[in-house]
Structures
1.
Amino acid sequence: MRIDVVSIFPSYFDGLTLSLLGKARDSGILNLDVRDLRDWTHDRHRTVDDTPYGGGAGMVMKPEPWGLALDELAASDSRASERPTIIFPSPAGEVFTQATARDLATREHLIFGCGRYEGIDERVFEYAADLGEVRLISLGDYVLNGGEVAVMAMVEAIGRLIPGVVGNPESLVEESHEDGLLEYPSYTKPSVWRDREVPPVLLSGNHGAIAHWRREQQLERTRRRRPDLLED
Ligand code: ADE
């Protein structure tokens, strides 16, 4: 899979060289490129923002650098079978879930455009729709200073679903949200720690009883912490 990220703060993404995604990049499973939006400016100050038409607080990201960035990154797909999926993180978008991550992990090419300030000139989203499928995606119902942190989270959630990125694919199956429930609790040695015991069923060797207990724990946790998940 190819992922391009456009940001005015590319160093936010240095963390993506670490751990499993770093290894996936090194091995070529994941072709991840982080680009500075200012590289597509042509003035001395490398300007990416301007005052909003109609007035109001803050600044708006100018369309020109975004247009050039999208042209360059999407044009390289002209020979590929699939148009890119162009994602703009936004608190005004659809909410990102594990289902979104699963869907996006099947795409050949994702382009993430990180907005800052009061947002990006609306015409950029319209233009991007000529080049690929546009998705506005929110990390949740709160406001961040820009899209970078949201894109970090999305790239990690998507990247670990690409075959070969997580060494043991079984660990992807038995985790929160994969089956619509929260994950069951985990324990390791020692069996007693500071007077707290591991639930005896986990030491019983009875695989049927363990599976049953884990399922009950999943349901109980989900009921208590996230009843909204059970409504669906
Ligand atoms: N940019 C600012 N807030 C955001 C959010 N909640 N999700 C995605 N992008 C954002």
Note: The pocket of adenine is lined by residues 89-91, 138-140, 142-144, 146-147, 150 (CB under 6 Å).
2.
Amino acid sequence: MLLVHWLPLMVSASPGKQQALVALGGNIGDVLAHFRHARDALRAHDRIDVVRFSPVYRSTALGPPQDDYLNAVIMLQTYLPALELLDVLQAIEQQCQRRRLQHWGPRTLDLDIIDYAGCQYQDERLILPHPQAHRRRFVLQPLRDIAPSWQHPVFACSPDVLLQALLDQMLICVHDCW
Ligand code: AMP
């Protein structure tokens, strides 16, 4: 198994607006409504611009038996530092009644920062890039739809190359426009 140790410091976020990629997931309640709420809340934030958002896919759940997930990725630009962006995302999760009851358990809305300005960072609250992103088709496929030339900050390769290494089943696109 490939073991990755991210660097324990923030690398290379120059001042100004930064590009971030945020993965959305959920499998409780009206998940599409939660996704729309998240997108609208990000658009309404005065220090965040939503640049692009992917189609919505359905994926089989990892972890304990549970309903299928919906997944998407949003590209945004923001003046917020990464930890403040995480605060905003966690507040949006709370607005959708997110409860952390079980590791990998069902959730109304999960918002993960996949990449923030190509930084590598690790502390007790935030790991960048997201340490599982390169293993997850439900992240890489929607990410590829909106950012095909994105490069993974650690592996320095595109979502297509990372997807070719995955053996899990294909995703079903359920909403092109939402
Ligand atoms: P999860 O249950 O998957 O939503 O994990 C949430 C926890 O992961 C939170 O406590 C976050 O502080 C932490 N975390 C670490 N890295 C990230 C990241 N890149 N994006 C979002 N949450 C993260």
Note: The longest helix spans residues 31-44.
